[in-house]
Amino acid sequence: MDYLLKNAHFIFTHFPIALLIFSLVFDLLALIFKKREWHAAGWLSLTVGTLGAIASVITGPEGMRNPMVHTHELYAKLTMFAAILLTVIRIGLLVWKKREIGGNPIYLTGALIAVILVSYTGHLGGQMVHRPFNPNGGPMMQNPAGGPGQGGQGAPGQGQRQGGQGQGQGQSGGSGQNTPAAK
Questions:
Q1: How confident is the model at residue 9 (pLDDT cuts 50, 70, 90)?
Q2: What ranges does the record list as Low complexity composition bias (predicted)?
Q3: Which pick of 26, 120, 158, 163 has the fewest CB atoms within 10 Å?
């Protein structure tokens, strides 16, 4: 249970990312295929995604020494406020005016802004948590002298691409360095 509490932010963050995007997708598909009932999936995704955004902001890790944490936190709060605003307006009009606005161009523009915000927030969070990608194969390491992913013999599977050209083609000795093929 202690593990879940310590990592709650990393569990909650996936809900707004997925559900705010799917809310927009359901509303757009409802317009394209003229299926009014799909708007219900749109507002339900929006509501649960908004609750996830609130939980993500509340459980955000404190005391991180990463310089990007302040920008990430700012965009997370902007995302949360945008999602709350969209949810309150949408459900309010649905309950009090019996009007579904999932197909309204102004609403869809706001939903697109929320999707862009949650996507950028997730991108910043991912940059803080995950190591940079090395397109030459293997993870990028801080050690410039060599090591796994930098030309040294690393753990099995490091330095080799999965898929693409096939295993070992265009690489010398599995070192992770691409070399021109012999002619």
A1: very high
A2: 135-145
A3: 163
CB 111 within 8 A of CB 150: no
Q: How far apart are CA 50 and CA 12, in angstroms?
A: 11
Global confidence as pTM: 0.73
The end-to-end CA distance of the chain, in Å, is 59
| C-alpha to C-alpha distance for 72 and 66, rounded to whole angstroms | 10
Report CA-CA distances (Å) from 56 to 11, 50, 65, 111, 148: 8, 10, 19, 19, 34
Answer with the residue of higher pLDDT: 117 or 152.
117
* CA atoms within a 13 Å half-sphere pointing along the CA-CB vector of 33: 11
Token pair 């990028």 is found at 140
Tokens coding 61: 């890790």
Reduced to 3 states, what is the DSSP secondary structure of residue 136?
Answer: coil
Q: Is the pLDDT score of 182 beyond 60?
A: no
Q: Does position 136 have pLDDT exceeding 50, yes or no?
A: yes
Q: How far apart are CA 171 and CA 168, in angstroms?
A: 5
The answer to whether the CB of 171 falls within 8 A of the CB of 181 is: no
SS3 call for 106: helix
